[in-house]
Q: What sequence folds into this?
């Protein structure tokens, strides 16, 4: 080969070698850049756990105000529920939060067609397969569980909040409080004048809803009246709103209801209650805010006394569900468990009830 050809061959070899080297370096640089970008993107992701898996331990889930759906085992679909009228503030203020963060879980409140809504009615509708789960202000009764067993399943109650029963009277009534025994005697007709419990000479007008109205009346009859009947002096009304309106214009009136419905009111006052005379515990936080300052200021629930049991008339609020291993049970379980989370308990407290944990 001539020197000229050797030089040309050498030149071409160098050019080809440099070209291959450049292509190789370019490929490596591009590959490294892609890997680097992928790692950067992954490092910025926050895992949103599936609603059917256990939540991951991150600050968003621990924060009570989280807006991500991290409710374990929450089924998708529309679920009928109903029951206690006491639960109305929770249905109004708490349940919509769950539906907003978990839109795949839709709650539909169903009222009975021919009965008044209430805890007992809700449990009957649950047993009759009209509800996926129900809300109750009292425990399950033995006969209710027997009826459920006849349908092939049992009932379970999950406590999620604490409520107190407040005794409401006209603001003009001047007595320090009532014992549980005196409240019983008033509603069974044994005490008929406020003078008998340290007040003025004034006939007592006890108001109540009917026994069929709901869990609050059932709880009152079971735990305060010891299953005795109401006296002949008792006047029946349909709703708490109606009762409070009557109390405002009836100096001798008395009524009982869920504490959040009574304590903050501006037209009636709630009485301290005791197990024995002279040891009364108010259902409101002291000092008492005079009604003349309402609605600028409202009396607040005595949450500490409710939780400790010092206030003598307290109860739990329950989610009632079927033990049938179906989607309905899964929905009720998930709903109750969410109410027991920090977010659920905070919302329950804002709705006017006392957190259970």
A:
């Amino acid at each position: 080969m001539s020197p000229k050809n050797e030089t040309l061959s050498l030149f071409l070899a160098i050019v080809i070698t440099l070209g291959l080297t450049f292509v190789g370096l370019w490929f490596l640089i591009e590959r490294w850049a892609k890997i680097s970008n992928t790692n950067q993107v992954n490092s910025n992701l926050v895992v949103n756990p599936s609603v059917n898996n256990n939540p991951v331990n991150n600050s968003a889930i621990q924060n009570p105000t989280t807006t991500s759906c991290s409710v374990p085992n929450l089924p998708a679909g529309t679920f009928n529920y109903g029951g206690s009228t006491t639960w109305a503030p929770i249905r109004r203020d708490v349940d919509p939060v769950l539906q907003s963060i978990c839109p795949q879980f839709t709650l539909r409140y169903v009222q009975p067609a021919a009965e008044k809504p209430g805890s007992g009615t809700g449990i009957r509708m649950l047993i009759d397969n009209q509800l996926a789960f129900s809300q109750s202000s009292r425990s399950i009764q033995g006969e209710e569980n027997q009826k459920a067993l006849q349908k092939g399943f049992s009932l379970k109650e999950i406590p999620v909040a604490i409520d107190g029963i407040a005794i409401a009277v006209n603001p003009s009534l001047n007595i320090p409080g009532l014992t549980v025994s005196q409240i019983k005697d008033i509603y069974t007709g044994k005490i008929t004048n406020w003078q008998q419990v340290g007040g003025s000479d004034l006939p007592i007008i006890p108001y109540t809803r009917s026994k069929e109205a709901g869990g609050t009346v059932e709880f009152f009859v079971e735990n305060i009246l010891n299953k005795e009947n109401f006296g002949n002096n008792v006047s029946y009304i349909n709703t708490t709103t109606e009762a409070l309106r009557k109390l405002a214009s009836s100096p001798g009136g008395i009524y009982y209801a869920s504490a959040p419905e009574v304590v903050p009111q501006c037209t009636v006052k709630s009485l301290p209650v005791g197990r024995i005379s002279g040891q009364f515990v108010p259902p409101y936080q002291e000092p008492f805010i005079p009604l003349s300052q309402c609605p600028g200021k409202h009396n607040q629930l005595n949450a500490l006394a409710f939780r400790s049991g010092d206030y003598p008339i307290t109860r739990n609020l329950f989610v009632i569900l079927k033990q049938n291993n179906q989607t309905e049970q899964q929905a009720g379980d998930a709903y109750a468990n969410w109410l027991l989370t920090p977010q659920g308990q905070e919302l329950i407290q804002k709705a006017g009830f006392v957190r259970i944990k």
User: Anything to note?
Assistant: The chain has two domains: 72-162+315-355, 163-314. Confidence is low (pLDDT under 50) at residues 22-64.
